[in-house]
Specification:
The complex is a heterotrimer of chains A (380), B (328) and C (369). With 380 residues, chain A is an alpha/beta fold. Chain A has 12 helices and 11 strands. In chain A, helix 3 (125-136) packs across helix 4 (141-154), helix 4 crosses helix 6 and helix 6 runs parallel beside helix 7. Chain B is mainly alpha-helical and 328 residues long. Chain B has helices at residues 34-41, 48-57, 60-82, 116-152, 154-169, 172-183, 188-215, 218-226, 230-267, 278-290, 295-322. The longest helix of chain B has 38 residues, at 230-267. The chains are: A alpha/beta (380), B mainly alpha (328), C mainly alpha (369). The interface between A and C is medium-sized, with 29 and 20 residues.
Chain lengths: 380, 328, 369
Amino acid sequence: MTTTLERPSASPERPADLLLSVHDLRTYFHVMDGTVKAVDGVNFSIRRGETLGIVGESGCGKSVTALTIMRLLDMPPAEIPTGSILFEDRDLLTLPDNEMRKIRGNEIAMIFQEPMTSLNPVFTIGHQISEAVRQHLKVSKKEAVDRAIESLRLVGISFPERRVKQYPHEMSGGMRQRVMIAMALSCEPKLLIADEPTTALDVTIQAQILELIKRIQADTGTALMLITHDLGVVAEMVHDVVVMYAGRVVEEGTVDEVLLQPKHPYTEGLLSSIPSKGLRGSRLNVIKGTVPNPFNMPVGCNFQPRCPYAFEPCPEHDPRIEEGGGPPVACWLWKRAPGHDIPQGLHDAQVAAARQAAAAKAGGVSGAVPTELRGEEIAS
Amino acid sequence: MAVEDSQPTRDRAGAPPAHGQRVAEDLLDTDEDPQQVDREVALQSLNQWQLAWRRFRKHRMAFVGLGILIFLVAVVIVVPIFQPFNFLNIPGSPRPGGEPPRLDRIFGTTYEGRDVFTLVANGGRVSLVVGLMSMVIAGSIGVVVGSIAGFMGGMIDNILMRIVDVFFAIPFLFVILVAARFFGRGDVLSLVLIIGLLSWPLIARLVRASFLSLREADFVDAARAVGVSNMRIAFRHILPNALSPVIVACTLLVANAIVLEAFVSFLGFGIRETEVSWGNALANAQEGIRFGNWWWAFFPGMAIALTVLSINFIGDGLRDALDPRSRD
Amino acid sequence: MLAYIVRRVLQALPVLFLIAVLSFGLMQLAPGGPHQQFQQNPRMTDEMVNRYLARWCLERNPDALGMLRSFGGWFGVWNCDAGGFLSEQGMPNFLPNFLGGGDNGVIHGDFGLSMTVSPNRPVIDLITERIPATAILMLTAFTIWVTLAIILGVIAAVRRYSVFDQSITLMSYIFYSLPTFWLGLMLIYLFAVNLGVLPSSGMLSVRTAPAPFNTPRFWEVFWENPLPLVQDIARHLVLPVITLVAVSVAADTRYVRSAMLDVLGQDYVRTARAKGLPPSRVVFRHAFRNALLPIITNVALALAFLFSGAIVTETIFAWPGMGRLYFEAIQARDYFLVMGVLFVGSLLVVMMNLLADVLYAWADPRIRY
């Protein structure tokens, strides 16, 4: 098995298609006990009308990434030491506040995790939606309300003319999330960021909301950036995936590539820990250890203390994904560490040994879970 | 690197694990450095009070307050013991308005020639005692009544809360003044009883609120399930948790009581001529103002202000320490 | 909404009744209570004694039943003249006079006669005479301090941890800890005695005012030429208002700041920002509107304690209001007057609490009534 992998050459895209391009983004929080590197060198991009999923555990920095893009973080504790966020050729990080405000809600819209608390309890929902409209589009009050009613209809709320005068507390969680979506779409944004939009909802409502988002995305051609910890959701909803761990991107690719042929040990671990009805009665898989202390990240690869494959270069060299070529995995199993100066053959042997060791620990199984079981898990 | 095979587990039916499944390992793997895992995984476990003390220490203002208070208490205890004269009998100074502050009488003198510094130091004893003792009385009664009301609920709770409501409806100062004037005898005990017996509803309400919310908490159900008696649940399980806001409230009560004593004595209804208190001193000093004698009124009042300030700092520090969710 | 108000009013009635019982009981328990004073007061003529007996069952040596009757008479449910629950018109005594009830007692607005402070004058007259002065003082101070507290508190919350915020917090602590009456004394010393620019006490200067405030003669002169009198009152208002404002602003600013901080951390504020709204709109329309809810409660409760505050300032500054009246009444052991002011003060507290609840219900669309 080859240990280096080239990323499939980029499809001949016109630069004009590129909507959002995040480049070496870092967001640090300076708190009393030290500095937390919530986002530590993240790269990804979204093309017009495309969908991207950002996956990872709680605390891996995915929400912070979204908030950084929207520039909704309070800058005294937060700091963005490096990085650029190119939205249609403009770097959002260098924009003055009033320019950024024209983009927020208008060209990039965001919906949040908690629909129960995300709407202002003292204003009617009609007021809240039309407020966004009137802020960005020069329309009259009446027209704004009409637009609000239309967007409520669009998200599948019945009797929108009546709903428009209601207060948030008169609606259920699922409905409030629809309202949030309506509000986000009311100005026809080019990009919709959805931060765990269904985590706080019942399972049946989850499905409805996801269906809704999918349909709207297809109908309006809005690009979608979906943040979630749920791999099942990712499989359903998006075309491309980015897997994050402890502030860094560890793997990227299309959904098929990442979920069916995971390369990074963390992705493998995530996938194999999904309980599956085909494997009842046996113990659940866990990724051993816990998420690292944010004030004290491991040196080198930050997944290495928990990684069953860890071998020589891992504790010393940081295997970040390089932009423009190189495998889409942050792992020394798939590429050569620059400081790690040994012959290729020796490296290949080390990698093979690492895989065998991991397999042995697992009880006679190779590193990747076989496809037939994988397919079954995802479909269920 | 030595690899220990952990035994594959068997599922319920006794068959070995299915092919292709990675068997779970213990979280603490034997071939990993246990200390590193400890560092990553374990948190220092402190009990509730230790955690609170750590948070309190971070609050600079609270510490300043504590320092000031300790200083004041020290002065108030020590000075009257060592004063070279019984300040009630200082040989008079000829000047009618009293002497302004000078190096050998740092706070000046009253128009009878009494040294204001010793006045403040002596008065402090009375005022601080009133503050502390009232708090003890109000706190004890309040905690008991509030716990009973909160824990029992129902009719008892209703009756007790009606009584508390009445107390809250009447303007506090109004009642204190009436009680002091008509029932007080001008000594420390009367005032302590009056303030204490009229302040307990505040504490009772707080305790009851805590009890009401904690009563439904899971750990209470757990205790009941094990068979702990009601009384024991109330006092050993719920009460320590309910105490946090009460501690803060009692601290602030002391400050309140001190100011109350001062005002009531100032009006002539509180501590009368038998002893000196800060309020007392201010009452007499009021006349001196007319003659330009500002120090007589200034220093006792300043003492009150400093005491109240330091207690407020401490109270805020306590509030932050005991309830981490509260805002600055 | 109306049903809610009515319900709350009805709930308040038992509390008021208990307050009356408490006020009355307190007086009776006091050593040297009204009955003794009744006996010992040399200024009580026989005629007066009979009148007291007739209206409020005030006997010289009452037994337990007699006490109850006095309470009934003072409260207005008992007809002392005829001795029963029915008025002279034959209807239950507690009904309003025009409906056939009696005209004695608290229920009918009769709080008895003052015995020592202003002998023989009805207590209710004394009280109503003094209310305007207190109202002028307290409402002026209240408006100023609430406005200031809101402005300072909002700015401090929005600019958290800034120099402004930290100095406001420090000043709040300091001023909040100052005893109000002592601050008043010091201000009197500074401005009246030392600098001589402001008057030290009272509401009017003898030179400008022809008669005390709220007397007929005063109003005569007032309507002819209001300006000098208004100026005079304004000059007298300065020191007491500063005293009240200094201490109260401190407490309320911290409360406003804390309420705003709570709200600013809420999800819906983040949503508002995510919509691209300008910061002023986010703060004032979205955040403040929600912070207003606890602030309304706080402010309304402060209103309830206005009268306690009145006692402090009015005694220091010799302001002729209800607080000062209360002080004089206590000092002179004028029982009816004390009971009357106590009851009226409590009534105001209950009313303010009711107002607080109603305002809150109006402001928060989540409250269903």
